[in-house]
Amino acid sequence: MKWRPPRPTDPVVIPPPSALRGPSEGVLRVVAPVALTRVRGPWELGEVPPGAEPEAVRFAVVGRLWYMVSEAPQEERGFLERLARDVEASTWSFPLFPDASLRLDRFLRSGDPSVTTVATIVRDEPELVRRVWEAASGAAYGRRTVRTLDEAVVRLGLDAVWRVAMGACVHSPVFRIPAFLEQCNELRSLSPMIAAVADRLAPGGDAWLAGLLHDVGRLFVYRAAAGKAKVVADRSRIEAVAQRLAPGLGMLVTANWGLPAGVVQALAWLPDPQRAPFETRETAIALKAAVVAVYQVAGERRGVDHGALEVLRRLPTRAFTPERALAEAESVWNEAHPVRRAS
Fold this sequence. Notes:
By secondary structure, the protein is mainly α. It has 16 helices and 2 strands.
């Protein structure tokens, strides 16, 4: 039987947090709000792509970037020119995933996988071995001792191994750009939660992976802005460029990695998911709902209201209600930030 991402009827196996979180990684601080201040959500700023084909999107992004170069002050042109040239030349040297993760993803989607081959691919990446081993030895499996990597793969199952492998991206150096550490830390904290909510709203691997990578386009801009420059350009300008071009850049980067169309199109159409191609529209709508709901829940902890309910009500779907999307986000947030009770 050909492997495919999990479906709603499948038993759900969730790797323990230790498999998806590094040993010293922090989480967003939870603060009870006194009053909520209305702030535009980050999803409101991205440009809608000109079409579903990556080449058309690349052409549009390049044109937009060179226009920005012509309008920018001299001191801000450096990073825009670097970014424009990279996109123009399709230079996607962006090592977000360990090589073993991408090889495992392609292998699992290509045919009938064997445990031995999966274990061999995992074994090529020591950090991935550690995460799979920890997941298989975790509390969800009674903390039973694992003797071999093959046994760990069997205990977890292929779906959970795939999620651990793809989830490794949040530990990539790309998520730790020193000049943009605060923004990267926020993405690293929110991305797994957005992935979990998207998967609950549209169960299946595409929604989960799209959630994990929902803002990878912003990381690409941050990396170009940091570059080799001694002085980083104006941060507000960089952030404006990142938010505006993130959907198109996210599409181009994930298409270059050869990820499924559901992931590629969901990222591209995040600003307006009802315009996504029909076969990927469900994933795109679930991703938009997950992003909106998680940012709303996170914002409320800081006293911020992003107006999520209004946005969710405009999404054309009968698969879930706005209230359910927000409830799922609240549930996932609470699972990621358990309250420690005094003994």
